[in-house]
Amino acid sequence: MISLKDIHVVYDKITPALRGVSLDFHDGEFVGIIGLSGSGKSTLLKTINGLVKPMKGKVCLDELVLGDLSGKKLREVRRNIGFVFQEFNLVERTSVLENVLIGRLGYLSTLKGFFGLFKDSDYEIAVAALDTVGLKTKITARAGQLSGGQKQRVAIAKTLTQEPRVILADEPVASLDRTSSTVVMDTFAKIRHKHKITIIINLHDVELARKYCDRLVGLRDGKVLFDKTTKEISNEDIQELYS
Ligand SMILES: Nc1ncnc2c1ncn2[C@@H]1O[C@H](COP(=O)(O)OP(=O)(O)OP(=O)(O)O)[C@@H](O)[C@H]1O
Ligand SMILES: [Mg+2]
């Protein structure tokens, strides 16, 4: 379980982005974070994976407090947390397979990783991940040749090879058309069921959030306005969030 306890984040000493956020994310949950631009959604995900340090509060993965860890132990724990970006973050000129293998780097010694000496088992994991996202046939294609939706599925496969317990996704379908968005969201739903990975996803599109997520957290001005199962969310909740 991931627990956020009274998280406060302030940028540049003056811009408050999160103002006392406490949330629990249980294993295998599919949680959507929604809210207006600037409400703190990206900051929330960056705080969970340690890209942003809270000035107050704690992020816990089970009984471990992430802020207390450093060096090897921190790297080991962070391997449990995958991140999927809006803009895919692939190396466009290299192959799909090589892009996906990058997810295994956290398991290699620095030297080995540097020289690209992956083991057979790393390749097997990468191919299995591409199979899961439905892109096994694109293994030798250059990443730059793929459509946006395919690129995002490669990015998801790359994150899967990291064998994470949690995937954080920041607006992963914001650059995609409706059809590709649905395919990518279906992919998240599939890996959540297949691998029991917790998925925490920032979404602009409330309709998609309501369709796919078990639970929705509404952020407003850096605070949790609501935290409810998707079934409990009313149109009034949504109206209040975006008013
Ligand atoms: N690196 C930064 N430096 C300074 N202020 C920042 C930084 N990143 C975000 N902020 C500010 O923190 C607040 C929350 O931003 P954040 O990016 O978390 O919002 P968001 O909900 O993800 O917005 P969007 O929907 O536009 O992606 C905003 O006021 C934003 O301007
Ligand atoms: Mg954002």
Structural class: alpha/beta
Which term fits the overall shape? Answer: globular
- Give me the number of helical elements: 9
Element-level helix/strand string? EEEHEEHEHHHHEHEHEEH
Cα-based radius of gyration, to the nearest Å: 18 Å
Spans with pLDDT under 50 lasting ≥5 residues?
none
Oligomer: single chain
Measured by DSSP, the beta-strand proportion falls in: 25-35%
Which bin fits the share of residues in helices?
Answer: 25-40%
Average the pLDDT over all residues and give the rounded result: 94
* Total beta strand runs: 10
Distance between the termini: 32 Å
**Biggest sheet layout:** 6 strands, mixed
Bound small molecules, by name, code or SMILES, are: adenosine-5'-triphosphate, magnesium ion
Strand order of the largest sheet: 6-7-8-3-9-10
